[in-house]
Amino acid sequence: MGYLDAEAVQKVLSVMLNEVKHPFFRTNKWILQSLRSFRMTFSLFWDNLDLHYGFIPAGRRNSGPVVILTFRSSERIVPQYVHMDKKPSWRLQMKTSGNTVLITGGGTGIGFCIAEEFVRSGNEVIICGRREEKLREAKAKLPQIHTKQCDVSNAKDREALFNWVTANFKGINILVNNAGVQRMIDFKKGVAELARHEDEVDINLTATIQLSAYFIPAFMQRKESAIVNVSSGLAFIPLAIMPVYCATKAALHSFSISLRHQLKDTPVKVFEVIPPTVDTELDKGTRAQRNMTYRGIPPSEVATATMKALADDEFECAVGQAQGLMDASRSNFAEQFGRMNH
Ligand SMILES: NC(=O)c1ccc[n+]([C@@H]2O[C@H](COP(=O)([O-])OP(=O)(O)OC[C@H]3O[C@@H](n4cnc5c(N)ncnc54)[C@H](OP(=O)(O)O)[C@@H]3O)[C@@H](O)[C@H]2O)c1
Q1: Whole-angstrom Cα distance, residue 24 to residue 239?
Q2: I need a surface site. Which of 67, 234, 281, 325 has the fewest CB within 10 A?
Q3: Are residues 292 and 149 in the same domain?
Q4: Secondary structure E strands in the chain
Q5: Range from 29-38, 258-267, 295-304 carrying the lowest mean pLDDT
Q6: Which residue numbers are catalytic?
């Protein structure tokens, strides 16, 4: 008896969906019989397949009729929900070990914690950042990682990074676009104020877009691959004192949605990790200036949530209070904006 692989499951599904002819709600009895007979048929070939059916209620993510396939492989047991209302497209949930991962800005904060999680789960990890000493410190803590000095806002550096990574790590299949900066900018002070700061658009947005464009064609050749964009709860409700930062994160959210849609029939999955306030170096200076005493959640919590999102196909992963901002942007934007920007 063989184990089911993605191709085999695709075959199972196409036969099943053609035969069952959704809607399967004609009668529950009828679908039960169908599933039973499919199960019998396929269990002749695969002993690790279980079929059930169910209905995810309205209002929940992916609501509607589903067939639930549980297949046991040597590595994991993963229930898969196959939607009868949607075009059958079978994709395995990401495995969280055995990948090769590039994390931009992986020397500190959230990026470093994500690197730690990936290393712990048995992945090859490459991090990059501008400051050599931060990369060295990271390497001292995590000797297995590979480091590359790179300014992702610089086009030549991005190209060099892509060439170096693909030459040295042929199996690269996950890109975590995490590098970011956050600035308070007072537009009343005009263009000179803008020039005082690094360009947040280049670092937070352009780098993500360009690096994604570099890696996607290679990722399409992999069995499974992923782009993980780290945005922010502030993508949903902006903090007006950081207008450019919030705009870049809102753009990242939009970009992630479009990319996910464009790549839906490829092996490349697009995840967006949406952290709340996190206790990192990101905004240490201005938090003090703003008399902000709340330091935020530890970055390790974001890293844990990221790994869980990858394992569960949770494409938009809002962590902690970021979920509240996301929800408020849809239900009571003005009230929440007012609360945050009085
Ligand atoms: N902390 C929060 O409250 C929070 C909340 C929501 C979202 N986020 C997002 O989480 C991500 C990680 O931030 P963090 O909180 O972990 O802060 P962090 O510790 O300051 O991490 C940012 C990392 O990005 C790197 N980086 C910045 N500019 C770069 C560039 N041009 N090229 C390459 N690397 C660059 C930094 O290293 P170098 O300076 O050495 O280059 C640093 O390692 C950011 O995208 C941030 O917007 C953070």
Answers
A1: 48
A2: 281
A3: yes
A4: 49-56, 64-72, 77-83, 100-104, 124-129, 146-149, 174-177, 225-230, 268-274, 316-318
A5: 29-38
A6: 245
pLDDT of residue 2: 40
Residue 22's pLDDT is what? Answer: 44
- Evaluate: CB of 206 within 6 angstroms of ligand 1: no
Q: Give the pTM.
A: 0.80
Distance between CA atoms of residues 287 and 50, nearest Å? 52
281 CB within 6 A, ligand 1: yes
CA 71 to chain centre: 24
Task: Report, in angstroms and rounded to the nearest whole number, the Rg of the chain calculated over CA atoms.
Answer: 22
Residue 102: pLDDT over 90: yes
Q: Is 132 or 17 the better-scoring residue by pLDDT?
A: 132
Burial 126-149, CB ≥16 within 10 A → b, else e: bbbbbeeebbeebeeebeebbbbe
Q: Tell me if 203 CB under 6 Å of ligand 1.
A: yes
Question: From the CA of 89, how far away is ligand 1's center (Å)?
Answer: 35
C-alpha of residue 287 to centroid of ligand 1, in Å: 15
Residue 89 domain flag: no
Q: Identify the pLDDT of residue 312.
A: 84
The SS3 of residue 196 is coil
Domain span holding position 40: 6-83
